Batch of 2 targets.
Target 1
Amino acid sequence: MWPMIVKEFRQLRRDRRTLAMMIAMPLILLTVFGYAARFDVTSIPTAVFGPQADAVVQQLPPAIHVISVDATGNRADAQEVLRRGDAAVAIYAGPDPVVYADGSELFMAQAVLRRAPTLPAPVEVLYNPDLSTAVVMVPALIGLIMAFIGTIVTSLGVVRERADGTLETLSVMPLKPRDVIIGKIAPYFLVATVDIVLITIAGLLVFNVPFQGSVLVFALLSFLFLLVVLGLGVLISTLSRTQGEAIQLAIMVMLPQILLSGMIFPLSSMAAGVRWIGQLLPLTYFVTAARGILLRGEPIGALLTPLGVLALMAVIILGAAVFRFHRDVAPAGAAEIVDVAAEGAPA
């Protein structure tokens, strides 16, 4: 028994990736998620409109963070600033004043309602008046399911080719690395497209989630997001030698996206040192944009930032996947076939 235990320890010591996951990752996850796992909202971005705007700003509680003041604005302006996602709360300070809260920002809306007695006007919740958790979660779950399929399932693609012994054949065929990557992604992209249509329809019908925005804008968002997560899966597969390694890396990529994307915990409640990690995650931008499109009917002009970031991520990640395949996989495969041919040649 003792020799077997010693052998396993030596093998574990050589497998640095597994050792890091067992020791370092729990400490990192505890620290990062400990700061991220907060439901309390201490700063609520607010826009104030109307002739009494300046006076109202002086009366607001500390948690109400005023980001803009427009003394010439009206109720329509207040509602529009919420629809575009520029603020979580909009106050109209004029005749019949009112405080509009964005119900698609669930925790912020709840925080506003808790502070209603300290506010200068009654609160009216827009875009999710019942404060339904399902209505807010379904757009995020659509992205999570797509990320899961795209990252974990696709990450096994190139690794499977290596295990089956067909990777070497691919590397010496008259195909450019980008052709191989596109060929690996295309089937998963088609299946994922069908999946996203099915889950979106199911979410709308089963959970009564509204679809206030443009179908074409949502299709563009989904297209860019799928390119990113599928590219991540292929990149992970080029970094892995076995299916076990691919699954480990995919899980390491997925965990932060679940907890740091704003899907469960509001980004505004996270510590600044953790919040920036969320800004590097593709799911963050999908969740923000999907909630805006489905729940608020947010126009494409207000979505240029998340769409642009996802497009940039797709270019970078797919480019990195092509580079990795060209640098590491293709030359190695070609060298192996040349060695085999040399061994079979007559002396």
Note: The chain has two domains: 44-126, 133-344.
Target 2
Amino acid sequence: MAIDVEKLAKDMFSAAFVVLKARAPKIKVIAEGEFKKIAQTLLTIEAELAAGQISREEATLLVEMQKSATRSVLLMSEGMSLIVAEQAINSALDVARAAVNTATGVKLL
């Protein structure tokens, strides 16, 4: 089952922006881009897992790397704290969890 990147990105952004809008409202465009990147990375990971090109451990590491990159970008916004960035990322990944884990066939998120 392939991941619908556009829908996933929108859903992830919507969940994250609930956290972000009160604390860093100017970050909307940047956050949208970051959650699109995460969704695209998840699609790539799904494809690579399905093709046997990467292991579950490598997939998990790739997810962590993308989370770290997103966290860094969010933290550059005025008024953003590490806690808020983490809450936003976690909210987004909570929305993605079922679709991604089903698509990959492993508990990735």
Note: DSSP finds four helices and no strands in the chain.
